[in-house]
Amino acid sequence: MRQVRFSARVVALAVVTLVGVGACTPERQADPGGRGGGLAQAGSAERETGAGGSSGSDQRTRPEPKPTRTKAKPKPKPSPTKAKPKPAPKPTAAGCPLGEHQREVETYLARLGGFGRVTVDGRQSAADCAAIKKFQQRYDIRPAAGRAGPTTYDVAKRLATTDTKRCKAASSGTTFCIDLTRQTTWALRGGKVVWGPTVTRTGMKGYATPAGTFTINYRNIKEWSDPYEVWLPYWQHFTQGMGYHQTTTYLHDKSIGSHGCVNLLPADARRAWELGKVGSRVVLFGRRPGT
Description:
Layout: H1 2-24, H2 44-49, H3 102-112, H4 126-138, H5 150-160, E1 174-179, E2 184-189, E3 192-199, E4 212-215, E5 218-225, E6 230-239, E7 242-246, E8 262-264, H6 266-275, E9 281-285
Parallel strand pairs: 1-9, 7-8
Antiparallel strand pairs: 1-2, 2-3, 4-9, 5-6, 6-7
């Protein structure tokens, strides 16, 4: 009778052990998002803390000797090194610093004309300095210090290489032309250029201003933009919520752009307003680089 009771206890203990293992060990789940938030494999935490593995023998083991502590010598702190400031461009005898695009800017200003005498020799003179300053002031290039830097070079190149003959004028009235590739604009009357070329900035990536021929169908001296909550001076609409208007940011910041409109410098926006009217033709061609 004792043997039967003992066997029954062994069987019951085995059943409880098997059921317990199946119910309490969570299955390993995938880590959602790969950020380490999933459940760890059974036993991994124990391995990390040293609590896992077999319990070992009941035999007493000799205590391990305590490690002796030695005082570490403090490492000498490195003396801080001061970064050498970049030298500011030194003004030449002409009074203006020499830019890295001196000769190129001289070449383009000589081609454009209207900014004073320029000598194309790659050297800064008093006359060159005055001409470059005048050019920078006209197109709001900051600072207008007479230095032939990247922005001055870019604007001068775009204006000097604009081909106004690529735009077909209407038989009468004003035709506005926009070269999207060079980001320049001008106006024609009777086949002659009556304004520009001047600089502009059109739609940025994701808001590219479309090429095509359109007509100004609405004008307002000061239009409120509902989507962007900003005033748009000298607004002349020609398609899909796009039109000419005075820029609300620094025009030569190429990292940004409009949401499809044709941005103008204040003086240019006023002149375009004076030349335009409802019914004026607008011709756009090319594509802004990067869009």
